[in-house]
Amino acid sequence: MFSFFLLDSSTPWQIYFQDAASPVMEGIINLHHDLMFFITFILFFVLVVMGRTLYFFGYNSNDAFAGKNVVHGTVLEIVWTVLPSIILIIVALPSFALLYSIDEIIDPALTIKCVGHQWYWSYEYSDFEAQLGAINFDSYMIPEDELEIGELRLLEVDNRIVLPVNTHTRILVTAADVLHSWAVPSLGIKLDACVGRLNQTSVFILREGVFYGQCSEICGVGHANMPIVVEAVSVAKYITWLSEKV
């Protein structure tokens, strides 16, 4: 549809995050790095303590009963109680800040409604209903035999969502039949689509590109055929797309 700078999708044997395209995803990646530091420290600390214990107090060791007189260690108990508490506090502070930023809904400039069906997504842009009329369309996966060169198998759709960059956007998600889940990893979004319930989140896209996601809640035999494609463009290109849709 439009030219793009980056193509963000999963890759074979991928074990790491996709590149962040929103402040929330940047926060998730940074929190992951912080947690991995503490996890690595705790892992090696426990391994060293366990190794020393097995070595010095093994059954075949000459000092097998070296610790028989050690019945209470006040300093040690204080350390292994206080230190984990401090680590939990250090971890909790950025976690709470990230959770707050995920739940915060800033006054949006744009609202898009996503409805999950078996097995496709439908979208509605209703902000311009009074001026341009409501924009509604369904988004189906492109069959493998209809893909063009360079398009991604099981990820391409016939109608992409087009959103402007650097714009606060509210996303409303629901379902028409069974549970679905609207997930786009590069944007840090994974929101359940529940029948009879309207869930919401917000996104602020930082850069232009095409961002791929999929339904992340098992919803039946066509679960793998519900890809999500978000194309982030400049405001000028977004206005052009709106005028073409009307």
Quick recap of the structure?
Its cofactor is Cu cation. The chain is an alpha/beta fold.
Report on this structure.
The chain is an alpha/beta fold and 246 residues long. The chain folds into two domains: 81 residues, Helix Hairpins, CATH 1.10.287; 136 residues, Cupredoxins -  blue copper proteins (Immunoglobulin-like, Sandwich), CATH 2.60.40.420. It is 30% helix and 26% strand. It is built from three helices and eleven strands. The strands form two sheets. Strands 1, 5, 7, 8, 10 and 11 form a six-stranded mixed β-sheet that branches. A five-stranded mixed β-sheet has the order 4-3-2-6-9, with no helix packed on it. α1 runs antiparallel to α2. 22% of the residues are buried. The N terminus is likely disordered.
